[in-house]
Amino acid sequence: MFDKAFKPFLKSQPLEKILDPVDQCISHHLSLVRESLADRQVEIMYDYEMLPNRKPRFLAQTAAHVAGAAYYYQRKDVQQDPWGEKKIYGVCIHPYYGGWFAIRALLLFPDVEVSFLQQNPPIDCVRTEEEKIELLDKFNFHWQDWRYRDIIEVKEKYSEEQKTYFAAPPAERLKLLGLQGGLQRNAMH
Questions:
Q1: Which of 1, 94, 114, 179 is least buried, going by the fewest C-beta atoms within 10 A?
Q2: Residue 135 half-sphere exposure, CB side, CA atoms within 13 Å?
Q3: HEC profile for 62-85?
Q4: For 66, how many CA atoms within 13 A lie in the half-sphere containing its CB?
Q5: What are phi and psi of 73, to 5 degrees?
Q6: Per-residue pLDDT, 15
Q7: Paired sense of beta strands 105-108 and 91-93, if any
Q8: What is the pLDDT of residue 181?
């Protein structure tokens, strides 16, 4: 996504119109998907959309789990709960990418029915109790160092440039890509 969609998108847009680069990139590319499926009804929901009651329009990690795309590891997946009263958030792990992915949108096709489609469960790729505890610990208490993403051996992960981009404060990100002043200029409007 970063090299093939995001960076070309930024280079093709007037920087004055870029307020949220990733969200605008995803929206742009999914609008192209919608156009290519003009003969179909497609409902697109984005991970940042909220309902009037300030709850998310959809639960991205739950949706990925139900779709069989990634396993959503939660506290209930651990037999010997070591956290006591602490709030523990769940996290999705993909069998190929580990934690090196993001769920940015959900596409619904309400007029499509596939009666023979079978639901495939997600692959439980974090095998042991100890690894599940380690995953939830790293995600909940050390998420900024990104180590939870490598809880399993991954086939592909973010490039160093992508990691540097997402680790930087938002106002400094475009400069890292050689696109000077974009978000700072937007802040003045």
A1: 114
A2: 29
A3: HHHHHCCCCEEECHHHCCCCCCCC
A4: 7
A5: -80, 130
A6: 81
A7: unpaired
A8: 53
Which residues pair with residue 98 across a beta bridge? 94
Please check whether residue 7 is in contact with residue 177, taking contact to mean a CB–CB distance below 8 angstroms.
Answer: yes
Query: Cα–Cα distance between 189 and 184 in angstroms, integer?
Result: 9
One-letter amino acid of 80: Q
Q: How far is CA 135 from CA 67, 95, 146, 148, in A?
A: 21, 14, 11, 5
Distance (Å, rounded) from C-alpha 92 to C-alpha 83? 19
Q: Tell me the residue ranges of DSSP E strands in 35-156.
A: 43-46, 71-73, 91-93, 105-108
Under DSSP, the state recorded for 116 is: T
**pLDDT tens for each residue of 33-61:** 999 999 999 999 999 999 999 999 999 99
Enter the pTM of the model: 0.87
Q: Given the structure tokens 């930087």, which residue do they identify?
A: 168
Longest CA–CA span in the chain (Å) reads 54
Half-sphere exposure for 145 (CA within 13 Å, toward CB): 9
pLDDT of residue 86: 97
Number of helices followed by number of strands (H, E) in the chain? 7, 4
